[in-house]
Amino acid sequence: MKIYGISGSPRDDTTQYVLNEALESLKSDGFDVKLFSCANKSIAPCMHCDYCLTHKECVNKDDMVEVYEGLKQADGLIFATPLHSGGISSEILSIFERTRALEAVDINLLRGKIGMSIAIGGDRDGGQSSAHLQIITYYMIHGIIPVSGGGYGANLGASFWSQDSLEKIKEDEYGFESLERTLKEFKNFLNTIRVKTK
Ligand SMILES: Cc1cc2nc3c(=O)[nH]c(=O)nc-3n(C[C@H](O)[C@H](O)[C@H](O)COP(=O)(O)O)c2cc1C
After folding, report:
1. I need a labelling partner for 119 at 20 to 30 A (CA). Which of 109, 158, 159, 176 fits?
2. How confident is the model over 146-157, as pLDDT tens digits?
3. Does 87 contact ligand 1 (Cβ within 6 A)?
4. Ligand 1: distance of its center to the CA of 64 in Å?
5. In terms of residue numbers, what domain contains 113?
6. 165 lines ligand 1 (CB under 6 A)
7. Where are the alpha helices (DSSP H) in 8-118?
């Protein structure tokens, strides 16, 4: 089963580190993983030109072309975002908006995939839940099944407090516990689908 993880930070730092840890865990359980990093990439917001509605593809051939392929092929999706102004980064928002072109081809293209969310803030309470809700809302709109690690710590997904430092995030035990619990549920759902489609 293919897992596509997207790091929504404009740099290779704490978000990419945590996403990589998540993907390594999935890989060790036999999942086929791929990481896309928004660092040094160019993904513009949707221009609402409606080109995709008639031509069945996006007019903008920037780095979103690669993301379209990843989204299409994946069984499971992980959106990992740094907190920017109390919510998801503009990189993640652009990816969300540009999904319009993918669904101009097939409205059900993302339907039934499994999705989880990772939110990383410099502050302990810097808007992680709001970011999760933005990601979960995207999942709901596109028919992606959102999973969390459940109550007592992983209510909406994996939440981290980076203190704006790669060294500090490695010490965030609570964050890694929320990641472990969310991954456990994510794997359970993916394995259920694997059994059903056999
Ligand atoms: C423009 C900007 C806005 C930010 N806004 C928030 C915020 O609202 N809440 C928060 O907890 N951290 C905020 N931060 C801090 C980052 O979320 C934090 O440093 C995170 O670990 C960065 O992820 P990265 O290392 O992958 O880039 C902000 C950082 C930037 C650059």
Report:
1. 109
2. 999 999 889 999
3. no
4. 23
5. 2-197
6. no
7. 14-28, 51-55, 64-73, 90-105
